[in-house]
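Methods — Computational structure assignment.
A single polypeptide chain was analysed. Its primary sequence is given first, followed by the predicted tertiary structure written as structure tokens.
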Amino acid sequence: LFFAVPCGCVSGWFVFSSSSLSLDRFFAMVRFLHIQNRQRAPLTICGDCPAVQAEASPYSLVDICLNALVADLEKFCVERPDGSLCLKESERLPQEVADRLLQTMAYRELLNDGTVGIFRGNQMRLKQACIRKAKISAQAFQQAFCHHKLIELDAAGVNEAVTVSDVVSGLGSSVWIQNNLQCLVLDSLTLSPTNPYERCFSQLSGLRSLSITNVAFRDEDLAEVASLPRLESLDISSTSVTDITALVACKDQLKSLTMHGLKRLNMPTPKFLDVMRELKYLNHLDISDEQHSRSDIPFRLLGEKDILPNLVSLDISGSKYITDEAVEAFVRQRPTMRFVGLLGTEAGYTEFLSGEGTLKVSGGENESQISEALKRYSERACFVKEAFFHLFTQTCFMRITKPEILKLVIIGMRNHPLDLAVQLTASACALNLTRQGLAAGMPVRLLSSVIQLLLKAMETFPEQQQLQKNCLLSLSSVRILQDVPFNRFAAAKFVVQWLCNQENQHIQRIAVNIISILALKLSDEQAAQLTSEFYIVVGKLLEIVEQKTNQNELDTTFHFTLSALWNLTDEAPTTCGHFIDNKGLELFMRVLQVNVIAF
């Protein structure tokens, strides 16, 4: 595996091969690049679009090296008797680089009992650990992570083999972690099957921030967590909590409280408001509900004048009975407020709540509100879908390139790959943002990401015709076909299938145009793998030529079809054989005889 990365030498490029690089030299390079990265001056942002600058910039050298290590990890490791991996050399990575290595492995979903073995012992020093969606056992978690001096751990979505109790008890086995762990994310974990009511949080006395969403977390658990002496931020969204009275125990330090979609909450509204009245130091409150709850708590809260005096952020998205007048009055009584969430409500339509000033607003009325919603709700599928719906209507006639918006679409798609509603609305938004000449102003990296995600969506939902059509239309951009790196082999197979199954002439013309360009971009090996598909597509293309010849139609579809046949047969003996087998020579002689082609 060879790499060419920009550097400060005369040629401007530094080339190395990972196959000839020892682990100690590799680590030395990473340490060197990490130091250089620390000393690098901040980039100057051109214009008013940071997304253009960020996505057009090269990947950092540290990330390039870490990606190389992750892609070929086994080459740098030996296997222990238990099957886990251990780095061959005794070199250490800097703590910040070790954190990024773990995060890279988590992002690529490469964390399992074998790969997490590299974090055992003292070769790595972790501080901010991310093990999202790891497929590991409780024992592997204990051995790989609980001896590090962690101040943050994100274990969201770890497989069912690791329970909440396993994580908290494992962390609690370290006295240092007990006193110094500050942030813990346990979203979507399971409780212990043998003792689901086991209390274990009290041992983490240094904890300041806890997120435990989508967990069967109950009132008794809330009471235990509320007793933590330093707790400042708590997220109990989509849990089994029915009564939040226990939060009064942490009223003097709690600053952030998120209770999105708390379906089992069963408190009289006056009692709920009494608890809120006790939380005088609260800066952030989220009581949004993606199911458009009919609870009157948000509405009643807006009418309270002697409550939450230090509030900076309030999220009531998805709530009923919300009006512009009530929200505006509430905000004006609290001049320190900087955000209000109104997506899925009947508010957010006045100039004061437009979101274009110092007060940020999430909603669906304008681009600022939609962008804020996509930034804040990227993990909430229902809100993402609703924001995409509003974005689609906003971008139908867009004439300005918006890379920062496309980046938000990519994040939403990546976070919810199995949600059809999200993928369908996202594909429509991506089409609006890249159609016609808009793709020309987009950074190549963004275009590459969105096309790869669209291809993945097509693979996941093969029967969804509208989604497939949106992707086909996005692919038809000449900029994307010519300049953007993506899996052209998978795209070619998809386009061939569409061409053979569609009778709509508009779709045929687009598919023919795409395949004519993709054919030139495939390697000989890839083209050989598509022999059977090309046999079918050559026959289909000749059918189109014959139809246009009989009708004497010299249109763009006819020209694209001829170009596609030329590109498919050029220096391709097998495809030429398909052309002859399908009586292509006889047809082309007839085309010339009837003077359809103009010379």
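Note: The radius of gyration is 29 Å.
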